[in-house]
Specification:
The complex is a heterodimer. Chain A is mostly helical. Chain A is built from 13 helices and no strands. By secondary structure, chain B is mostly helical. A two-stranded antiparallel sheet of chain B has the order 1-2. Classes of the chains: A mainly alpha, B mainly alpha.
């Protein structure tokens, strides 16, 4: 409930702040779009914030002609497989944490809680060592496996918070009916935790899709390059073609932009997963 | 049935009554546990071990005892990185916390235009850190950037050591304020309207209401958001790496960046591991002390408040 609705006067300072912040948010985005539509030659003499006098999609064509499809494909493979495996194994773990009454399940849970506090960066050197030893360096596996590991703790935490809200009686009545644990997982737990699965899935998908450090350290060749890394390498490649670099930025954000339009609520709840409670 | 028995004899043939008491077999947690141990927890231990070893990233690591620790702590670059990280942490919090709070309160309003603005406020969140860094790099280019149109911004922002850290701070704020204002928006919407109604009847003005109702009611949101901001400051890597690469000179070489450059550019994995261990210890220390500061655990507190 906003205060202004109560005491009737419009909140001038609040409104001012809102519009000012909007300008700050939109200015760089406007700059990306107009620059990406400029012909390469015009970039050097047209004013940076002016509308392009000869708008063109050349920059986009350049990016797409330079293996952008492959990079998007790699990002998709890594994101989808990481999210799918994470959801599957984290749900199993959450199931145990909430329903298994032994001391071990509490210990497992505390171990995962510890994981939430581990900064990814700090473990990158041993992860690199491990990936090299396993012979996975410069493969997409090198990105998927550690990404899953670091997505697990928060996923287990959120899913188990959600699982706790399922009434015990439902589990008991299924057990009485002779259902095995797999049956219970499939026909009770999964349907009941669907919203949490979406939230956790979105959260993990965003962080993997935008992840930079693992690809930077664990891959090398253009064959295994994912989107965020491709932006960085385009920047090195197209030093004289800023519109193309910014077109790549637009293209890389488009899938998430589309997701934002289609499922804004899920995306926002996924983003603040576990914190916005 | 003891826990060990449960581990040895997974679910399979257990009687219904037993299953009722013990729930699903621990095996359901095994895949998650295995992946987490192998690629997160064991590497965390590994970084401590590696901090006592010499390794160039290619050959076989060998023991050197405390050499790395002595070397790293005597290195002025690391001390400088410490200082920059502290500066960035405090600065980020000072910029982001008040702005996110005010924007969150603004976004919590039910007016139509505020709802529309809130949708747009979220946009920075759609870009990866690498993308944001690239955009600001060209936006702030001294020859072709925004300074050409807005002359008061016509400075070599990323080329001057005295300005670069400030730019990093602003770009971080631009990309993270949307997230934190969302937390505050959710927090404000949970404040019972009756509190404001009572205050209005008592004749409290908007500012008095903000100070005496909104701020105290947001206590746990402030702690959560601040913890994330402060601990997050220790881990900004991709944004700074792409934006400045740590330069000009050492002007923006914060700890995580120092770790990466030391390890993967100077091939001193031992020294880099020392920096990594410092990062973990400082991060955990801050998170725990902020948690203590908030009294009880965050989760409990929020449930009590609801």
């Amino acid at each position: 409930m906003s205060t202004s609705a109560l005491n009737g006067r419009p909140n001038v300072i609040g409104g001012l702040l809102g519009w000012l912040w909007l300008t700050i948010v939109l200015l760089p985005i406007y700059f990306i779009v107009v620059t990406s539509l400029r012909p390469r030659e015009d970039f050097y003499h047209e004013r940076p914030l002016s509308l392009p006098s000869r708008p063109t999609l050349d920059a986009y064509a350049t990016v797409i002609g330079n293996d952008f499809g492959r990079y998007i494909g790699n990002s998709l493979i890594v994101t989808v497989s990481t999210v799918a495996v994470t959801l599957l194994v984290a749900l199993g773990a959450a199931f145990v944490v909430v329903r298994n009454r032994s001391r071990w399940s509490a210990r497992v849970f505390r171990l995962f809680l510890l994981g939430i506090a581990i900064p990814i960066q700090a473990t990158i050197i041993p992860v690199y060592y491990l990936i090299v030893q396993l012979g996975l360096y410069d493969t997409l596996w090198a990105l998927v496996l550690p990404s899953i590991a670091f997505a697990i703790p928060l996923s287990v935490l959120i899913l188990s918070n959600f699982l706790r809200d399922i009434p015990s009686e439902l589990f008991e009545s299924m057990t009485v009916d002779g259902a095995g644990e797999l049956r219970i997982l499939w026909s009770l737990v999964i349907p009941m935790t669907k919203p949490a699965l979406v939230t956790v899935g979105v959260y993990n998908a965003l962080s993997v899709w935008n992840g930079f450090l693992f690809p930077l350290v664990l891959t090398q060749s253009a064959e295994t390059r994912v989107l965020p890394l491709s932006l960085w390498s385009y920047q090195g490649e197209f030093t004289m073609n800023v519109p193309a670099v910014l077109a790549a930025v637009v293209l890389s954000a488009l899938p998430i932009f589309a997701a934002y339009i289609v499922g804004r609520r899920q995306l926002v709840s996924g983003l603040t997963a576990g914190f916005g409670k | 049935m003891t826990a060990t028995e449960a581990l040895i004899a997974p679910g399979g043939r257990a009687l219904p009554s037993r299953r009722e008491r013990h729930g699903p077999s621990l095996w359901f947690a095994a895949p998650a546990l295995l992946l987490f141990l192998a690629f997160a927890l064991i590497p965390l231990g590994g970084v401590v071990v590696l901090s006592f070893m010499e390794w160039d990233g290619l050959g076989t690591p060998s023991w050197t005892g405390l050499d790395n620790w002595g070397r790293v702590f005597a290195d002025p670059v690391v001390m400088n990185a410490f200082w920059l990280t502290a500066l960035l942490t405090v600065g980020s919090w000072l910029v982001q916390a008040p702005l996110s709070l005010l924007l969150g309160v603004f976004m919590a309003g039910r007016q139509r235009y505020r709802a529309v603005l809130s949708v747009l406020f979220f946009l920075p969140q759609l870009f990866s850190a690498a993308a944001i860094a690239i955009v600001f790099k060209s936006l702030l280019d001294p020859n072709f950037g925004i300074g050409q149109d807005l002359s008061f911004l016509d400075l070599d922002w990323l080329g001057r050591p005295d300005l670069a850290l400030g730019v990093v701070l602003v770009v971080i704020a631009w990309s993270f304020i949307p997230f934190h204002s969302l937390l505050y928006q959710a927090g404000v919407r949970q404040i019972p309207p009756s509190l404001y109604e009572a205050a209005t009847i008592d004749g409290a003005g908007r500012i008095a209401q903000f100070v005496h109702i909104t701020l105290p009611q947001l206590k746990y949101t402030i702690i959560t958001s601040s913890t994330l901001m402060i601990v997050g400051s220790l881990t900004y890597f991709d944004l700074v790496f792409v934006l400045t690469g740590g330069g000009p000179g050492y002007a923006t070489r914060i700890l995580p960046l120092d770790m990466y450059l030391r390890g993967f550019r100077s091939y001193d994995m031992g020294g880099a591991s020392v920096v990594a261990v410092i990062l973990v210890v400082v991060g955990l220390g801050i998170a725990l002390s902020l948690n203590r500061l908030s009294g009880t655990g965050r989760m409990e507190s929020q449930m009590e408040g609801a």
